[in-house]
Amino acid sequence: LQEQYQLVIAQNGKIGIEKAQELIPDIIISDIMMPIMDGFEVCDFLKKEEKTSHIPIIVLTAKASHGDKLLGLQNGADAYLTKPFDRKELLIRLKHIIEKKQKIQAFYAQHQSLPETVPVEHQFIQKIYRIIEAHYQEDTFALPQLCEALHLSRTQVFRKVKALTNQSPSDMILHFRLQEAKKLLGQADRTITEITYQVGFKNQTHFSTAYKKYFGHSPSSDK
Q1: Which of 34, 44, 175, 198 has its CA 20 to 30 A from that of 20?
Q2: Which of 168, 118, 120 is closest to 142 using CA atoms?
Q3: CA–CA distance from 119 to each of 53, 76, 124, 203, 206 (Å)?
Q4: How far apart are alpha carbons 18 and 21 in whole angstroms?
Q5: Do residues 185 and 195 make contact, with C-beta atoms less than 8 angstroms apart?
Q6: Measuring CA to CA, how many Å separate 113 from each of 79, 98, 116?
Q7: Residue 31 class from Cβ within 10 Å (0-12 exposed, 13-18 middle, 19+ buried)?
Q8: Termini Cα distance of the chain
């Protein structure tokens, strides 16, 4: 894999979990038989943790029984390959996981919400949108406040949001404010200056510049 991917190696399941929490990798490939914590425990732990729940996990194992395969999938594995596995099959699995991830990112580039009955990784983004919706009018609300509300570090939030949406958390906040501003601009009883402060911008120049960059035209065009 080293010719196509940047690799980080963990010598056992416990170290693997620690590195996954620290680095938030795009994909995890895990053996089942490992010291300290086995692959089933690794899958179960990482899929239940909010900061790592979105990371796809491919499980490799010599345990080929149907029951073992079901146990791996029940613990959150996204794919299950029996050793000795075919190299091409592994590469194809990785390719499909990346393509699925890109589709999710493309969706969030066009939408700000999803139905409530969605997978855990989508629920995390929904949670972020709910926090932003509750605080976007505050001009002091930014990435530090979002991280505090999520009880996650800046690095963890950035890497998870980037992995799911291909945009930064700060851009999510900015784009949410701009979308809300666009809705308000259609209301005749509000001026652009009033809307600027209502959606959390500290000055109209910054608002107008960001609006034009995002929508391709000035706020007055939508007034």
Answers
A1: 175
A2: 168
A3: 10, 12, 9, 38, 36
A4: 5
A5: yes
A6: 27, 22, 9
A7: middle
A8: 53
Residue located via tokens 């666009």 = 182
Q: Is the peptide bond before 115 cis (omega within 30 degrees of 0)?
A: no
**The two structure tokens encoding residue 169:** 């958390």
* pLDDT in the model for residue 120: 58
Give me 204's structure tokens: 């109209």
The whole-number mean pLDDT for each consecutive block of 10 residues of the chain, a chain of 223 residues, reads 92 95 92 90 90 89 65 71 86 90 77 54 82 94 95 90 89 93 86 94 94 93 85
Spatial contact of 43 and 12, defined as CB atoms under 8 Å apart = no
**Which helix H or strand E contains 163, and what residues bound it?**
helix 154-165
Q: What's residue 71's pLDDT?
A: 64
Tell me the pTM.
0.69
Ramachandran bin of 204, using left for φ above 0, alpha for ψ from -120 to 50, beta for the remaining angles: alpha
As a whole number of angstroms, the distance between CA 166 and CA 54 comes to: 14
Alpha-carbon gap, residue 201 to 136, rounded angstroms = 9
pLDDT for the residue 117: 47
